[in-house]
Write a structure and sequence with these properties.
mainly beta
C-alpha cells in the first residue's frame, strides 16, 4: 500500500491508516456537456489527534474554537511525497463518543473551486476596473468607433432611444439627424474582462486563446439602463488627518469623529461625559444625535454630481447635488450598540474641481440646576477640510456594469467558446483552452498491462437525440422580426441526432445576441442595431440581459456623427455585429450557420462548428462506446495522469469521462469514451493569430507563453529585418510558462513595417499541437518632416515637426 500525505495550510494532517480516500476527477462529462467539472473527493475521516485538533481549532468545543468551518482552506495531496492534487478542504463535522472527540469529517475539492470561493456572489460592478479607462466625451467616443488598433472599450452603433434610418430624408446620412455621442453605450472586450477578474481576485489564467483575436474581438455590451446616463469613475473623498480629538468638552473619552478617510459613529456612554456647570442630569437617549454634513465648495462648474454613502463598506444611499451645496449624509440616534464607519465617494457628470468639508456633530441636551429648571442644548463638532479635489470624465465602469454576477459571466463565456478551465501546478493558476485544443495538447498513456481484465463493462452511450444551443430570448425589434419570419430565435441552433433515443439537452448562455441591420450604403456597409422593443413613437427602450457582440475589421461607411461640438462625416469604422475576421476567414458568434448581416454571406465557422462539433461528432459516432474498468496504476503514472490525456487500452484510444482514484491502494476506476478523432481533428482550431498595432511612436506589450506539463514551446526569431526588441533572446525553446516582452521602438523609416514571431507548442510526445503567430504592425511616421538621413526633423525641445 502506498503512503498518502495531506497538507492543510501547509501543515501535514494525521490520517487513519485504514481510511479509504478517493478523488473523483471529471471535466467534460457526457451526462452534462455544458459544464466544467473539477476534482472532488468523497468525504473522509481524520483522527482527532493533538495535531489535527490544533489545525481545526478544537472545533467540537465552541468555548475554545476559533476555526471557521464555513471557509475552505488551501490543501494539497501527495502520494509517496509526489504531488497529486492541489485544492481546498472543508471541515464538515466533528464526531464525539461518550463526550470525547473521536474524528473529523472533511471533503477535498479540486482547485477550480478556488475560483468560485474567491468570486463568491460578486457582480460585474464589484470588479476593479482601475486599470482601464475610457473618457466620456465626443472625440474619444468617435475615436473608439473608427480606431483600427485594439481597444479595451468601444462604442457600438446601437440605438436605445430612436430608430436610425438612412437615405430617406431624415436619416443619419444627414447632419440634422446625426448619431450623437451621448446616445451610445460602451462595450468591453471579453479578453480584458478576463484580465480584470484575474487582477481583482489574484488569479492567473494561461493559454493561447486568452490572446486570440476571437476572444479579444468578443465584447460585452455595458448597458444597465434604458438610455445612457454616465457619470465619472467614483472618487473616494479622502481626508488624511485625525480630527477626533477636537471636541472641547470631551477630548479624551469621545470615540467619534473624523478620522483618516472615514467618520466613526459609536454609541456614547453619557455617564462618562464631562458634566457641564451647572448640571443636574443627562436626558433621554432620543435627545442625542450623531450627524455628518458634507460641504461642497469652490466648484469649477455647475454640473450634476452624486455622493455615494457607504456604511461599514456597503453602499447605503446616494445623494445628488450640483454646484456649491451642503448635505446631511447621516443622522443617527445615540442607541446602545451603535458602531458604524462611514466613507464617501463622489461621481460627476463631467470633469469637476472642488473643495470639501466633512463635519461630524454630536448634539444633545441636559437638565440644568438653574432655577427655574431648564433644558440646555449642547453640541460638539469635528471638521476636516480638503482642497484641490478633481474628477475626470472617465466612465465609471462599476456604476454602468450589466446586472450579472462575475460567476455567471465567467461560466457563460466558458460555455460560449466551450472552454475548459483546469488548475495547473502553480498556485491560483488555471489553464483556459477550447476543449478541442485542451485535448490535443494532452499526452497518451497505454494502461493495458495495469488493467484488471476480470470485469470490463462496455455500454452504449446514453445520449440525447437533440442538443439545443440557446441565447437568452431578446426583446429587440430586429430579433423579434427574425423570430416571426423564421420561427426560431436568432443565433440559436437545435442539433438533432435521430439515431439516438434520448431526450433534449439545452446549452443556454446567460447573454443576448442582437441582430443588426445593414443599410448597404453607396460608400460601404454601415451596420447598426437597436435595443428597443418595437417601431413606435415614442420608442420603447429596454434593459437587455448582457449582450455579446463581435467586432470586425475596419470597413468603409458614411454617416454623420455629432461629438457634442460639431457634426462630421465618418467614412471608416470598426463594425460590431455577429462576425469577426480571423486568419482571413469569418467566424460567427451565432451557434448555427446564419447569413452575416455585414457581408450578406453565410458564415460556416459558428460557435457550434468550431468549438462543439468535434466533441459531439466523436460522442455520436456509431462506433463510440462507454467502457468502465478498474486499473492498478503505479504512483508515477497516477501523479502524471491528467484529464486532457488520452488512454490506450489494447489497440484502441479513449478519452477520460471520469476517473476515481483510491489514494491508498492506487486502484483507479475509469469511465472511458471511445476516441475516433486524431489530434488534428480534436484541434480543429489548432492555430491562432494575435495582432498588435502601434503608431510611429512605438510602445511595448507582454505575451504570456503557457507551457503545459512535460511540454515545450519553440519560439522562432522574428522575420528579417528585425525592428522589435524581445525580452528573451530568440530563437529559443522554453519548458516552463513565462512572459515574452516585446518593445517596439520609434519608426523613423517613413514606411509601414510588420514583424512576425511564431510559437509552436509541442506535447511530451514531441507532437506539434498548436501554432501561435504574433504580428506586430507599426505604421509609418506620416505627418512628420524627415531629413535625407531618414531621421525626423526636430524642434529645439526635440519634438518632431509635423507637416
Amino acid at each position: 500500500m502506498q503512503s498518502v500525505q495531506i497538507y492543510i495550510e501547509n501543515k501535514r494532517i494525521d490520517l487513519f491508516k485504514s481510511e479509504s480516500i478517493s478523488v473523483n476527477s471529471s471535466v467534460q462529462n457526457v451526462s452534462d456537456i455544458s459544464k466544467v467539472f473539477t476534482d472532488f473527493s468523497k468525504s473522509f475521516q481524520l483522527p482527532a489527534s493533538k495535531n489535527n485538533n490544533e489545525i481545526f481549532g478544537y472545533y467540537y468545543n465552541n468555548d475554545l474554537n476559533s476555526f471557521d468551518a464555513n471557509t475552505r482552506l488551501d490543501a494539497r495531496i501527495e502520494i509517496n511525497h509526489a504531488d497529486f492534487r492541489k485544492g481546498r478542504v472543508q471541515l464538515e463535522s466533528a464526531t464525539l463518543r461518550d463526550g470525547q472527540i473521536e474524528f473529523y469529517t472533511v471533503t477535498f475539492f479540486g482547485d477550480v473551486v478556488t475560483i468560485k470561493d474567491k468570486i463568491g456572489s460578486d457582480k460585474l460592478r464589484d470588479l476593479d476596473y482601475s486599470g482601464i479607462n475610457q473618457l466620456y466625451d465626443g472625440a474619444s467616443i468617435k475615436d473608439s468607433i473608427t480606431d483600427t488598433a485594439y481597444r479595451d472599450i468601444r462604442f457600438p452603433l446601437i440605438s436605445s432611444d430612436r430608430i436610425w434610418t438612412y437615405n430617406d430624408g431624415s436619416g443619419i446620412d444627414l447632419s440634422a439627424h446625426a448619431i450623437v455621442y451621448d446616445e451610445l453605450f460602451p462595450a468591453v472586450s471579453d479578453a480584458k474582462i478576463m484580465e480584470v477578474i484575474q487582477d481583482t481576485y489574484g488569479l492567473t489564467f494561461t493559454g493561447p486563446f486568452l490572446t486570440d483575436d476571437r476572444l479579444k474581438n468578443s465584447f460585452t455590451w455595458w448597458k444597465n439602463a434604458e438610455i445612457p446616463t454616465f457619470t465619472s469613475e467614483a472618487l473616494p473623498l479622502t481626508f488624511n488627518e485625525d480630527g477626533g480629538s477636537s471636541f472641547p468638552l470631551n477630548p479624551d473619552v469621545q470615540p467619534n469623529g473624523v478620522f483618516e478617510n472615514e467618520v466613526r459613529i459609536v454609541h456614547n456612554n453619557m455617564s462618562t461625559f464631562l458634566q457641564p456647570t451647572p448640571f443636574f442630569s443627562w436626558l433621554a437617549v432620543s435627545t442625542y444625535n450623531h450627524k455628518i454634513d458634507l460641504v461642497i465648495q469652490n466648484t469649477s462648474a455647475s454640473i450634476d454630481y452624486f455622493i455615494d454613502v457607504y456604511v461599514n463598506g456597503t453602499i447605503s444611499s446616494t445623494v445628488p447635488g450640483s454646484g456649491n451645496s451642503t448635505f446631511t449624509l447621516a443622522s443617527e440616534m445615540n442607541t446602545t450598540g451603535l458602531n458604524d464607519i462611514y466613507t464617501f465617494e463622489i461621481r460627476t457628470a463631467g470633469p469637476l474641481d472642488f473643495d470639501f468639508d466633512i463635519i461630524y456633530t454630536f448634539s444633545g441636551s441636559y437638565a440644568s440646576t438653574n432655577s427655574p429648571f431648564t433644558v440646555v442644548p449642547f453640541s460638539e463638532s469635528s471638521t476636516f477640510s480638503t482642497i484641490n479635489q478633481s474628477t475626470t470624465a472617465y466612465i465609471g465602469l462599476n456604476q454602468t456594469a450589466p446586472d450579472m454576477t462575475v460567476a455567471e459571466w465567467f461560466s457563460g463565456t466558458l460555455k460560449q467558446f466551450n472552454l475548459t478551465c483546469y488548475p495547473t501546478s502553480e498556485p491560483l493558476t488555471f489553464e483556459i483552452y477550447p476543449l478541442a485544443d485542451w485535448y490535443a495538447k494532452g499526452d497518451v498513456f497505454d494502461i493495458t498491462k495495469y488493467t484488471d481484465i476480470s470485469t470490463i463493462k462496455v455500454d452504449r452511450l446514453k445520449l440525447y437525440n437533440e442538443v439545443s444551443f440557446k441565447w437568452q430570448k431578446s426583446e429587440a425589434l430586429l430579433n423579434r422580426g427574425y423570430e416571426g419570419v423564421n420561427a426560431k430565435q436568432y443565433g440559436c441552433l437545435d442539433k438533432t441526432f435521430p439515431d439516438y433515443d434520448g431526450g433534449k439537452y439545452d446549452i443556454s448562455l446567460p447573454f443576448e445576441n442582437l441582430l443588426f441591420q445593414n443599410f448597404d450604403t453607396i460608400n460601404g456597409n454601415l451596420q447598426v442595431s437597436y435595443c428597443v422593443k418595437e417601431y413606435a413613437i415614442p420608442v420603447q427602450p429596454y434593459v437587455p440581459k448582457p449582450v455579446k457582440l463581435y467586432l470586425n475589421d475596419s470597413a468603409a461607411c458614411s454617416f454623420q456623427f455629432n461629438d457634442g461640438t460639431s457634426t462630421t462625416e465618418v467614412t471608416t469604422y470598426r463594425p460590431f455585429g455577429q462576425s469577426t475576421t480571423y486568419s482571413s476567414d469569418s467566424y460567427s458568434i451565432n451557434f448555427g450557420e446564419e447569413i452575416d448581416s455585414l457581408t450578406n454571406n453565410p458564415v460556416s465557422n459558428s460557435l457550434y462548428s468550431v468549438y462543439y462539433q468535434p466533441y459531439l461528432v466523436n460522442l455520436f459516432n456509431t462506433k463510440s462506446r462507454q467502457v468502465t474498468l478498474k486499473a492498478h496504476l503505479p504512483v508515477g503514472l497516477i501523479t502524471r495522469l491528467s484529464l486532457e490525456d488520452a488512454i490506450i487500452l489494447r489497440d484502441k484510444k479513449y478519452r477520460i469521462n471520469n476517473m476515481i482514484v483510491d489514494l491508498m491502494t492506487g486502484a483507479v476506476n475509469f469511465v472511458l469514451i471511445s476516441d475516433w478523432l486524431t489530434n488534428e481533428e480534436w484541434s480543429a482550431a489548432g492555430s491562432s493569430v494575435t495582432t498588435y498595432e502601434f503608431d510611429a511612436t512605438g510602445g511595448s506589450f507582454n505575451f504570456l507563453v503557457s507551457v503545459g506539463r512535460d511540454s515545450y514551446v519553440e519560439i522562432d526569431a522574428p522575420n528579417s529585418p528585425v525592428f522589435v526588441v524581445p525580452s528573451i533572446s530568440l530563437p529559443t525553446t522554453i519548458t516552463t510558462s513565462q512572459t515574452l516582452g516585446i518593445t517596439v521602438p520609434v519608426n523613423n523609416t517613413g514606411a509601414d513595417r510588420t514583424q512576425v514571431i511564431t510559437l509552436r507548442y509541442y506535447n511530451s510526445s514531441n507532437n506539434l499541437v498548436f501554432t501561435q503567430t504574433i504580428y506586430v504592425i507599426q505604421s509609418a511616421s506620416d505627418g512628420f518632416l524627415l531629413m535625407e538621413s531618414g531621421d525626423f526633423l526636430l524642434l529645439e525641445n526635440l519634438g518632431q515637426i509635423e507637416t
